[in-house]
Amino acid sequence: MRTIVAGQVPRSNGRRRPTLRSVDQAWEAELRLPTPLVELRDPLFGRCRVLLKRDDLIHPDVPGNKWRKLKYLVRDARDRGAGTLLTFGGAHSNHVRAVAALGERLGLRTVGVIRGEEQPTNPGLRRAEERGMTLHYLDRATYRRKTEPDVLAALRDRFGGAYVVPEGGTTPFAFPGLAELVHELDRPYDAVVCAVGTGGTLAGIAAALPAGRRALGISVLRGARSLDAEVTALHRSALRRSLDNWTIDHRFHCGGFARRDAALDEFLARFADRHGWTPDPVYVGKALFGLSVLAGAGAFDGETVVALVSGPGTG
Ligand SMILES: Cc1ncc(COP(=O)(O)O)c(C=O)c1O
Predict the structure, then answer these.
(1) Domain limits at 300?
(2) Domain for residue 35, yes or no?
(3) For residue range 184-196, what is the model confidence (pLDDT) as tens digits?
(4) Which of 75, 96, 137, 298 has an alpha carbon 20 to 30 Å from 106's alpha carbon atom?
(5) Is 17 domain-assigned?
């Protein structure tokens, strides 16, 4: 749907073309914000009161932490006159798809640099292409060096000057976006729990929490101890200081990134039975599973925890 609102500029053929600002406003009017904060009644969480922050409902194409992380980044790209967003990800990256959708809606060309050899396109990448994204495959060795000057220069030669968005979209621009999430929390709470991939979402939430509240990240990666240092580095670069109101629990990866084990499967099946939908097993499922184990052991007795649904589930 193309909606034209205020600020149109006339074209010589008599048709009117939306300005960037009007496209923005039309797009933002489609977003479901603020997202609902709904109580989850479930004995799986012991004596902890859980409020689900349903960021998965923001927009089907740019759900959850994608919008929170990219909102101010795309504004910066346009303020700097960028015509192209270039980003990176694996073949199943939600982030790559979200950048394609945003680019299409906001009138920016998009390039998705995909890890690995070209393979038959999966539905996610097909969707990105349908939204106008140019896909470019990099073998794994080169992909690992994607931020080095020679690799970036080769990409620049091929696709022209682009605004480069890092894999996962974690940049200091995530901070104002995630602060908006925290400011939407209009009921009393003690802690926020979220899934951790790169740490950007956790870092942004921790940075915006009022005094006395804490953030707990559940890492979805096996043994990714470097995440703690990465979150601290994000705080130092965005805030010029470190924070002590957050921790990462590394025990609930369930076998590693995108892997699952019997305990996670059992939790998700019970959750689906009770609530009629299944959180995604890669991120939100592990965060809720971790929270249920910790809450069941009494870690949040008598407390209210906001659990972030940072991406869509099924059902
Ligand atoms: C649905 C979902 N939740 C959580 C995360 C983890 O966020 P972050 O990389 O900011 O730690 C991701 C990855 O971007 C994601 O797709």
Answers:
(1) 31-58+171-308
(2) yes
(3) 999 999 999 999 9
(4) 137
(5) no
